[in-house]
Structure prediction request, 480 residues.
Amino acid sequence: MTTITDLDADQLSAAIHAKQVSCREVMSSYLARIHRINPKFNAVVNLAPDDTLLAQADECDADLARGLDRGWLHGIPQAIKDTGHAKGFPTTYGCALLKDAVATQDSVMTARMKDAGCIVIGKTNMPEFGLGSHTFNDLFGATGNAWDASVSAGGSSGGAAVALAQRLLPVADGSDFMGSLRNPAAWNHIFGMRPSQGRVPFWPASDMWVAQLGTEGPMARTVKDLAKLLEVQSGYSANVPLSISSHLKPFVQPSDANTLKGKRIGWLGDLNGYLAMEDGILPVCEQALQRCADAGAIVEPISLGFDTQALWSAWLAWRRALVGPKVAPLLAIPGARDRIKPEALWEHDQAISLNFMDFMKASEVRTAYHTHLLSLFERFDSLALPVAQVWPFPVAQRWPQVLAGRTMDTYHRWMEVTLYATFGGLPAISVPAGFHANGKWPTGLQLIGRPQGDADLLDLAAAYELTAAELLARKPAELV
Prediction:
């Protein structure tokens, strides 16, 4: 028998609108599961009181009784990643220094999801300042993987991914700077999408001109839910002048995988050995690509054809320029340097020595890279890479210092595979690819689309989804 929390978001929305279930029943079911499961995984934080949330659910039921439809998310529980503002909830960024920083307004994305009818129930856990693809902090603690709580959930949207995989939420939001929507999606066997730069406006923000590497976006258990949530989140905002003004094409669920026929996918693999990869990652991703090939896609191994070391150096400059100023204000608090994670301090201290000439040189490299990508998309509909270079590692480990026999020279070098979409401002989707030989740890394949090609990329992912039904049917032990 299907329970309320088993339903995908679109199924749940249909059931609510058809009055097959009440919003109170939905909220009660999700709260019961959160209270039972969340203590093991620590995915949802700063949960609002049950009576407050049930009262809001009753208001949603009353609206439906009067014929008032709030939208696709009518009465659906939503927890906002702790980078996003939700009025009345703290926006902590996983930092103990910000534990009492209660938001006085909603971010654009939160407001849009509320306008579509969602009920914000709390926040989802993340690493401090979103740095490092491993969700732990001194304020809330670590989030365990949905498939094996002893290993990392990924990050920085790790709490969102685990909440979604463990059916603590029907759909989830997150943000992505260096794979923060893609990596936790891969490690928790769900879909995560980094939209095109500017597709989902980020506001409020201290800078609206330069800080374009990070973007908010959707996570879901199905591509249809992913697309529908992105439709809610996206659209031009006058507060964000570089946001995309064109509307996202409405998603249409393909009837079969034939839409893959003739699609050209360039497989970048480990960039001809440049990227260190743990054993088993590439074969699992190649199996996922074989599903596409079996459905008629043309999969071709290719070289990136760009100076990867120059790209990495340019990436470091941009990252320091954007991260450092976010850390700096907190350092004015007495004793803050002793309470902020060393990786954040490293970014800040590196940013101080970054001069404008070096930043502009890095921007020129980024520009040349984007131009080069356009030439690749003359030949291919999508580029493919692994989402992660490692399997989920022990939750007590800060980050992998050695990968495939190579020493990692920064705390995020093991995540390098995610920067190739980010630095190009391109849309990218993490699709479930398969599991480690132990059967417990998932990973994903990264499909990268053309500039502003979000809709076409969703269509490609939806066709892939149809080829992987047996794989996608696998569930964590708590759900079996």
